[in-house]
Amino acid sequence: MHIHEYQAKTLFRCRDIQIPKGILIDNTTKINDVCKALGGDVWVVKAQIHAGGRGKGGGVIFCHSIEKVERVCNQLLGSKLITPQTDAKGLPVGQLLIEAKQNIERELYLSLLIDRQTHKITVLSSTKGGMDIEKVASKTPDKIIKFGIDPLGSLSVQDCTFLAKKLGFNTELTKQFNNTLLSLYEIFTQKDVNLIEINPLIITQENKLLALDGKIDFDDNALYRHEDIAKLRDISQEDEKERLASEYQLNYILFDGNIGCMVNGAGLAMATMDLIEHFGGSPANFLDVGGGTTADRVAKAFELIQTETNVKSILVNIFGGIVHCDLIAQGILQAIKTVGLTLPIVVRLEGTNAPEGLNLLNKSKFNIHVESDLTKAAIKIVKLTK
User: Fold this and answer.
1) 241-266 exposure pattern, b = at least 16 Cβ within 10 A, e = fewer
2) Using CA atoms, how far apart are residues 303 and 289, in angstroms rounded to an integer?
3) How far apart are CA 26 and CA 9, in angstroms?
4) What is the C-alpha to C-alpha distance for residues 228 and 206, in angstroms, rounded to an integer?
5) For the residues of 76-128, what is the DSSP string, one character each?
6) CB atoms within 10 A of CB 234
7) Could you please report the per-residue DSSP string of 320-342?
8) Which of 11, 59, 268, 362 could form a disulfide with 47, with the two C-beta atoms 3.0–4.6 Å apart?
9) What span, in angstroms and rounded, lies between the C-alpha atoms of 338 and 230?
C-alpha cells in the first residue's frame, strides 16, 4: 500500500525526523493565510498523488508570489496529473502540500528496502540526491552506498556513523543523520514496510538535515496488524477495477492488449502472458484468481475482463491442486451464464479431475474451446483473436 508524501512526513515528524514546515490544503480559500504562516517569499506547491516524477509532470511548482500560488493551486486541484510513473490517464489531485522554499546546500538520497537476493534489510544512500536512483546506479554505480542489516539483528549507531562518514558528514550532521536513519529503521521494522525513501534528503545552508520528500510502501499482507496505517489508504489513487478486484481477493492489473487472461497463481499467470506474447498475441491483463477459487470469484473475474472494450477473447488457464478442475468448470459455466459472456474463450485445465472438468465444458452450449496443453491453448487463443 502506498501513502502520500504528507502522510509519510507525518510519520517522520512523529519519530523526530526533521521535515520542512508545510500546510496541506484541499481548496484555495485561505492561500494568503497559508503563505504568511509558512513565511518566506518563495513557496513550493506539491501535488499529492501516488506516483513519482511529479516535478517532470508539472506537479511540483515554485511560486515567487502569493498570486501565483493561488493560480497554481486552482490549476492543480481537481485535475489529473500525468507523470513518467502514471498511465496516460494520470492520477487525480485532491490535495496539495505547500512549503516554503529551502536554502539547499546539498541533495542526498536515502532509503531502506528489502533485498531479496541477500535476504537483508538494505540501506541505500548516495551523494547524488534529487535524481532517479536507477540512473545513478547505472551511470555512476560508485556513488551508491549499500549497507545490509541482518533481519535478526538491528541497526546500530556505529553503523549509522560509518555511513555518515561515507557521505562526508561533519560531527553535527552525523548526529542528525544517525537520528534520521535510526528512526527510519524503526518505522521500517515496526510498520512492516517494503520501501521507505527520502529523495532528496537535503543539507540546508543552516546546516540542517531535512527530508524534503518522503515515500513509504507498506506490505499489504501485514496491514491487518496496523489499523493506523490502513486508515491512510487513499482509494482515489487506485485503479477502480483493481480496487474492486482486491475486494474479491483477485490480483488484477490492466494492460493494453486484447486477450483477457484468467489464471490461478502469479507465476502461472506470468508464464501464460509470456506464451501469448511469444505466439504473437497481446495480454489485456494480469489476473490471478488465487488457489482457493470459487464460482463467485470466477464470475467477478469474467465481469472485470469483459468490461474492457479492447478485449476480444479470453484465455482461462487453471491448474487444479487445492481446488478440483471439475468444480472450476462448473464455476466457469455458471459465471458465463451469470455475466452473459459472448467472447470466444479457450480454457486449459490441468491437475486434479481435469478430464472431468474438460468434459463438462465440452458438453456445454457456450462458445468454449478446451485444451489440456498450455502451448496449444496459447496458440488457439491468438488465432481466435486474430
Assistant:
1) beebbeebebbbebeebbbbbbbbbe
2) 13
3) 17
4) 35
5) HTT-EE--TTS-TT-EE---EEEEEPP-EEEEEEEEEEEETTTTEEEEEEES-
6) 18
7) ESSS-HHHHHHHHHHHHHHHT--
8) 59
9) 34
In terms of Cβ atoms closer than 10 Å to its own Cβ (0-12, 13-18, 19+), residue 240 is: exposed
Q: What is the pLDDT of residues 83-117, one digit of tens each?
A: 998 888 899 999 999 999 999 999 999 999 999 89
End-to-end CA distance of the chain: 38
* Residue 81 identity: L
Q: Give the active site residue among 5, 6, 99, 109.
A: 109
CB atoms within 10 A of CB 164: 21
Picking from 133, 106, 140, the residue whose alpha carbon sits closest to that of residue 212 is 106
pLDDT in tens, 215-252: 999 998 899 999 999 999 998 888 777 777 777 678 88
Three state DSSP letters for 271-296? HHHHHHHHCCCCECEEEECCCCCCHH
Pairing of strands 345-351, 368-371: parallel
197 catalytic? Reply is yes
For helices 31-38 and 66-76, the axis angle rounded to 10 degrees is: 120
B/e letters for 363-385, b = 16+ CB within 10 Å, e = fewer, are eeeeebbbbbebeebbbbbbebb
pTM of the model: 0.78
Catalytic residue check, 252: no
d(CA 252, CA 114): 24
The tens digit of pLDDT for each residue in 58-79 reads: 999 999 999 999 999 999 999 9
Q: How far apart are CA 237 and CA 80, in angstroms?
A: 10
**Domains along the chain?**
1-20+103-237 (3.30.470.20), 21-101 (3.30.1490.20), 240-385 (3.40.50.261)
Q: Which residues have CB under 8 Å from 129's CB, separation 6+?
A: 106, 107, 108, 109, 110, 199, 200, 201, 202
Residue with cell 517532470: 56
Identify whether the C-beta of residue 284 lies closer than 8 Å to the C-beta of residue 255: yes
- Please, which residues have CB within 8 angstroms of residue 153's CB and are 6 or more apart in sequence? none
Identify the three-state secondary structure at position 304.
Answer: helix
Side chain identity at residue 46, one-letter code: K
Among residues 5, 99, 197, 303, the one annotated as catalytic is 197
